[in-house]
Automatic annotation (TrEMBL):
GO terms for cellular component: endoplasmic reticulum membrane. Its main location: endoplasmic reticulum. PANTHER family: DER1-LIKE PROTEIN, DERLIN. Functional component of endoplasmic reticulum-associated degradation (ERAD) for misfolded lumenal proteins. May act by forming a channel that allows the retrotranslocation of misfolded proteins into the cytosol where they are ubiquitinated and degraded by the proteasome. It is a multi-pass membrane protein. Pfam families: DER1. This is Derlin. InterPro entries: DER1, Rhomboid-like_sf. It is found in: Endoplasmic reticulum membrane. The keyword Endoplasmic reticulum applies. The keyword Isomerase does not apply. Residues 220-240 are annotated as: Disordered.
Length: 240
């Protein structure tokens, strides 16, 4: 019974969020069990181009370090904000969500080459948080019960938290930059005088991922609880 309940809960997670978070957890588990090593996963342009180790283009987004506070922190934010994007502004637009993944991953790979980053998963998480925060500007956030602010400031608060932990903020800045590029091209520029949509999901991706019907029993997570935990919980302005 417990297994069936857990299975049902797992299968209710939207497909892209489920696939990405599962891949991240399984990759970390494989490293912890010493089945593979981080040296087989990290981003290295020379090995990709000269030794044709093309899997590194994907695996560098799947490893968030050994199991610990940093891993759990990233997994929580990745799961929550990826799911809320998929159930919110990308509801019924799985192909567009996959295209955002591909677009963001491509830009990060290009930029990561110049700043010598070997793992880009955390930057990808920040990108998701940034896009969600810009699309939900009226949500009030509470971070660890210490700071109260509106959602668009969340990526910057997370960057400050990384700085306090002694981590490099280059990763956070990369995620914010890529998230802003996507948000500008998708949400801002098309609404400007003379603007237009530069980001168009290829028809082959739409054919593979978009489904004509929606599940009537599907229950999305409420966006009124964006963090789900004390450090990211919030509510929309005007609510009691």
């Amino acid at each position: 019974m417990a297994y069936q309940t857990l299975q049902q809960e797992y299968l209710q997670i939207p497909v892209v969020t489920r696939a990405y978070t599962t891949a991240c957890v399984l990759t970390t588990a494989a490293v912890q069990l010493e089945i593979i090593t981080p040296f087989q996963l990290y981003f290295n342009p020379d090995l990709i181009l000269r030794n044709y180790q093309v899997w590194r283009l994907i695996t560098n987004f799947l490893f968030f370090g050994p199991v610990g506070f940093n891993f759990l922190f990233n997994m929580i934010f990745l799961y929550r904000y990826c799911r809320m994007l998929e159930e919110g502004s990308f509801r019924g637009r799985t192909a567009d969500f996959v295209f955002m993944f591909l677009f963001g991953g491509l830009l990060m790979t290009i930029f990561g080459t110049f700043v010598s980053l070997v793992f880009l998963g955390q930057a990808f998480t920040i990108m998701l948080v940034y896009v969600w925060s810009r699309r939900n500007p009226n949500v009030r956030m509470n971070f660890f019960g210490l700071l109260n602010f509106q959602a668009p400031f969340l990526p910057w608060v997370l960057m400050g938290f990384s700085l306090l932990l002694g981590n490099s903020i280059i990763v956070d800045l990369l995620g914010i930059a890529v998230g802003h590029v996507y948000f500008f091209l998708e949400d801002v520029f098309p609404n400007q005088p003379g603007g237009g949509r530069w980001l168009k999901t290829p028809s082959i991706i739409k054919m593979l991922f978009d489904t004509p019907e929606e599940d009537a029993n599907y229950n999305p997570l409420p966006e009124e609880r964006p963090g789900g935990f004390a450090w990211g919980e919030g509510q929309r302005l005007g609510e009691n």
